[in-house]
Amino acid sequence: MDPSRCLVMGVLNVTPDSFSDGGRWEDIDLAIAKGLELRDDGADIVDVGGESTRPGAERVDANIEMGRVRPVVMALVHEGITVSVDTMRASTAAAAIDAGAAIINDVSGGLADPAMAPLVAEAGVDYVAMHWRAPSGDMDAFDRYQDVVSEVRDELEERVEALVGAGVDADRIILDPGLGFAKVADSNWPLLAHLECLQGLGHRVMVGASRKRFLGSVLPRDDGPLSRENATSAVTALAAAHGVWAVRVHDVRAARDVVHVVNAWQAAR
Ligand code: PMM
């Protein structure tokens, strides 16, 4: 992976119900083929998920989640791809690490499963701790903030303290503001505008804005997730220019091009 530029993490949801690509890669062979396509399009990391976290989503059975994720991780790792696994469950994370996953992407930052932090500490893998307040089914009840930037920063700092307290290597922790998670549309913009507040905690930062509803809220016309690709690219440019470690996106080719443009622009400054 090239540390001189923002990395591109490609989304691969092996689920029937994710908000943008749900149902498209539910079949394991199709999911593996999509993972290879993401790599060919320029993904530095492929993020495999077996449980939808779209607003209102119900939890999926642990065995179902593991059955979706594990064979896809094994196949992609076998192809030499750096794989992260989007899971809130330590049991799924353990199976994924066993299958070769290099990164655990936990949208709950360790809050959903107390066994996650010790597992990550023991395994010594990279760990994305996203800002999260409640499971997707309830998160709309937790979307109030006095000052969203400082509250998200403080809540993530608490997660870091808990993770490090459980033995996780601080250098392995990557922070994510959790755009769209327990946040009304307007709360996402201050977080994007003040990424340096999160970066100030001293960890790598990643951003997942791809096709999310808050982007549609500022567009003159919003026709659903697929119509938000240009808006996603705009956020990728802004986040890359802010020096984030990675962006998590569905359209990898677009993000890769944006990142290279930002790099050229930065090199010329
Ligand atoms: N968003 C989704 C899922 N996983 N992980 C991280 N680290 N950050 C995010 O913003 C994030 C995530 C929801 O989007 P999807 O349904 O397209 O996967």
Number of strands: 8
Characterize the main sheet.
8 strands, parallel, barrel
Enumerate the distinct ligands. Answer: pterin-6-yl-methyl-monophosphate
> Uncertain runs with pLDDT below 50, 5 residues or more?
none
Question: What is the C-alpha radius of gyration, as a whole number of Å?
Answer: 17 Å
* Main sheet: strand order: 1-2-3-4-5-6-7-8
Question: Which whole number gives the mean pLDDT?
Answer: 95
What structural class should be given to the helix and strand makeup? alpha/beta
Q: How do the SSEs run, as a string of H and E?
A: EHEHEHEHEHEHHEHHEH
Instruction: Kindly report how far apart the N and C termini lie.
Output: 24 Å
- Figure out the total of helices: 10
What sort of overall outline do the alpha carbons produce when their principal axes are compared?
A: globular
Portion in beta strands:
5-15%
Query: Helical amount among residues, as a percent range?
Result: 40-55%
What does this protein structure show overall?
- The protein is α/β, with parallel strands linked by helices.
- It is 42% helix and 14% strand.
- It has helices spanning 28-41, 62-78, 90-98, 116-123, 148-165, 185-193, 195-199, 213-216, 229-241, 252-267; strands spanning 7-13, 45-49, 83-86, 103-106, 126-130, 173-176, 204-207, 246-249.
- The chain has an eight-stranded parallel β-barrel, surrounded by six helices.
- Strand 2 (45-49), helix 2 and strand 3 (83-86) form a beta-alpha-beta unit.
- Helix 2 runs parallel beside helix 3 (90-98).
- The radius of gyration is 17 Å and the shape is globular.
- The mean pLDDT is 95.
- The site of pterin-6-yl-methyl-monophosphate has 18 residues, from strand 1 and strand 5.
